[in-house]
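Researcher: Last one for today. Full complex below.
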Amino acid sequence: MGWMAWTLPTALFFAGIAALLVVMTVWQTVSPGRERKGFLPISTSRGDRLFIGLLAAAYGHLLVLALTDWPLWIATAICVAGMTIIMKWG
Amino acid sequence: MKTYNNKAWWLVLPVFVLVAFSAIIPMMTVVNYSVQDIFDPSTRYFVGTEWYREILADPRLHDSLVRQFIYSFCVLAIEVPLGIVVALSMPRRGLGVPFSLILLSLPLLVPWNVVGTIWQIIGREDIGLYGWTLNSLGLDYNYASNPRDAWITVLVMDVWHWTSLVALLCYSGLRSIPDVYYQAARIDRASHWAVFRFIQLPKLKNVLLIAVMLRFMDSFMIYTEPFVLTGGGPGTATTFLSQTLTQMALGQFDLGRAAAFSLIYFLIILLVTWVFYTAMTHNDDKG
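Model: Here's the assembly. Have a good evening.
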């Protein structure tokens, strides 16, 4: 695995993504969700909302890096809040 | 609805393993590279988000990005309508069908670097048909020194190479429309435009979705053809994103910055493709 040049932060990041996918799979198996319409302009399933939230989080982090000198944890906190809103009301 | 059997998911496993090795594992490696300064495999230093901040403020990236979006927009704006027109003009039966299918397939069989070389010769003003003809008409054409000519040549080359793909996809879509639709249109005395607008275009939606996404992704990562034809020049007039990335990764061996660049590039493609897909399939949900 040395050729993949792992670091602790990136390992934690991918472990987090993997954990999210496992949790979503278990959630869907235990309590199947349906597509619904929230404040987003399209009908979305839970998986769609997770994808939209993750994509928005990636762009949110890039925007903060490009436009501000804020520490990254502020961007992460905003994106976690955004992800929660999208998952619940999106 | 009760789910009785989920065993079919195991059939997806081979594809998942294949994609893991061809895409997911390399992508994870790129993410790892993007947060480090790498001198060689054993000498690397964690730099956090430094490369991302540098890349996002890099005017080279901004210029390449603008050029790339203009290029992809032009490619789609020309190739998609032209492909539809070609598909509509193709014969529906008889000997003309295999003949036109083979003729349209030919440009798709030519490798990218050969396409670049062909157009390098065709575009020459002394021995090339295209360049010589334009100069004979009194136009001062030289793709090697004039940025506008270089742009036009790169675009014409792409149109020559890839419009066939759009045409073939549209042709397959048109052939799958049942004849009863046309019979109903004839009974209603529908005009050619009405047949196109209300029968053919809606039925072509799915193949057009694939055509637009394929052509967007392909044109957005174009490298070989302009590299062979113009080398990215004159100046940086036809230097697109992938060439800027290659210069960074292989020319300067700046792996960390190139990895950060690659991920931003990937995110742009992911977003645009998702927007295209959602916009074009959204009406299905409503219908």
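Residues 36-90 of chain A form one domain. The two ends of chain A are 39 Å apart (CA to CA).
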